[in-house]
Structure formats: C-alpha cells, structure tokens
C-alpha cells in the first residue's frame, strides 16, 4: 500500500456505533500508571497538571506493509494516520486553547510507535500501553483482529488527573482534533 493510502480515508468507511463501553469514563480519576513514551519518558497521566488530550487509536500501519485482512470493513478501525496528522496540524491551536499535553495512545510498543512519530513529524509523543495496564485499569474499549487486542478509537480530555470529557465513538478520525478544539473553544460545556 502506498503512503497516501494511510493518509487518506476511503469514502465508504463504516461508522462505529456507540456500544456504551465508554459511559463509565467521564469523571473517572486515573490510576497511577507510568506509560512509556516515544520521547523516552514515562508518563503518569494521573499526575499531570493542566489540561491533557489523549487520543487512543487501534494501531498505526507502516507504509509498504499490508493492513490486517478486512481492516476497512471494521467500523472505526481505519484512520490512525489521518487522526494523528490532524492532531499534529491542530497542535498549536490546541495549545492556544489551553491544552498543556497532547498524546496519542495505542497498545503497540514504543519502538513501533517511534516510526510513526518520525514519519508523520508529530510534535508530541505517543504513549504505549503494550502491557494493557491502563486499558485494563480503566476499562478502555477494545476489539480483536487477527488475535491481537487493539484499542477502539476514543479521545479523553483529562483535567488534573480526572477524565472530564470523552469523545466516543470517534468518527471520522481525521475530524477528531477539530472536534476536540471546538469543544474546548466552547468552554468544555458539552
């Protein structure tokens, strides 16, 4: 698959339905869990001050390597690169809106994620929950493909260690950063 295949979305992607698996998250205080980041740090989301945005995604693909069989037919699976690029492109606007920290989150390990950070020129690190510690502790929505557990696409707004707002399901993924920005500019009232 060409690089452009990862940066654009097919017109006929199926939209994910709200399955209720994120209903328990708003208001939840995060546990102390240190997640490895692609910049070499370990990040404890519960201990960060200010406003944090974490967008969780299933997996990043690598140009030249095939996507899992039937990937585009899985509602919400396709679009990790366009979603990351949108957060990259809106990064300065998010900071201007008061966001202190932006992170992407997946169950892939940091070595795998570093390729995406470099290739996509992301101005923020990606976090790895490859041991499924955060995913299990707060019951993030997941699905399985080809025997691998993956995160469903979800975006968390975190304020002083607690989840204040959840975007779920996220669709289309390339509009997620703009939706987060609009929410923040409205004063986080919805």
From TrEMBL:
Pfam families reported for this sequence: Redoxin (PF08534)
Uppermost EC category: oxidoreductase
EC number: 1.11.1.24
Record's keyword terms, sorted: Antioxidant, Disulfide bond, Oxidoreductase, Peroxidase, Redox-active center
Thioredoxin domain residues: 24-189
Region (Disordered): 1-20
Gene3D superfamilies per UniProt: Glutaredoxin
CDD domains tied to this protein: PRX_BCP
InterPro entries reported in the protein's UniProt record: Peroxiredoxin_BCP/PrxQ, Redoxin, Thioredoxin-like_sf, Thioredoxin_domain
Keyword Nucleus: no
One MF annotation (Gene Ontology) recorded for this entry: thioredoxin-dependent peroxiredoxin activity
Protein name: Peroxiredoxin
Species of the source: Xanthobacter aminoxidans
Phylogenetic placement of the source organism: Bacteria, Pseudomonadati, Pseudomonadota, Alphaproteobacteria, Hyphomicrobiales
């Amino acid at each position: 698959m060409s690089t452009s295949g990862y940066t654009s979305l097919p017109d006929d992607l199926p939209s994910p339905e709200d399955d209720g698996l994120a209903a328990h998250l708003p208001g939840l205080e995060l546990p102390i869990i240190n997640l490895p980041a692609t910049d070499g740090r370990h990040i404890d989301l519960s201990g960060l001050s200010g406003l944090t945005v974490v967008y969780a995604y299933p997996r990043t693909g690598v140009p030249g390597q095939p996507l899992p069989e039937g990937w585009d037919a899985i509602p919400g699976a396709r679009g990790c690169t366009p979603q990351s690029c949108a957060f990259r492109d809106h990064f300065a606007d998010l900071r201007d809106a008061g966001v202190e920290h932006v992170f992407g989150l997946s169950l892939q390990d940091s070595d795998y994620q570093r390729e995406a950070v470099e290739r996509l020129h992301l101005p923020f690190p990606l976090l790895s929950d490859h041991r499924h510690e955060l995913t299990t502790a707060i019951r993030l929505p997941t699905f399985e493909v080809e025997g691998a557990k993956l995160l469903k696409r979800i975006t968390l707004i975190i304020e002083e260690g607690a989840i204040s707002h959840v975007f779920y399901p996220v669709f289309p993924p390339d509009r997620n950063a703009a939706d987060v920005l609009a929410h923040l500019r409205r004063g986080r009232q919805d």
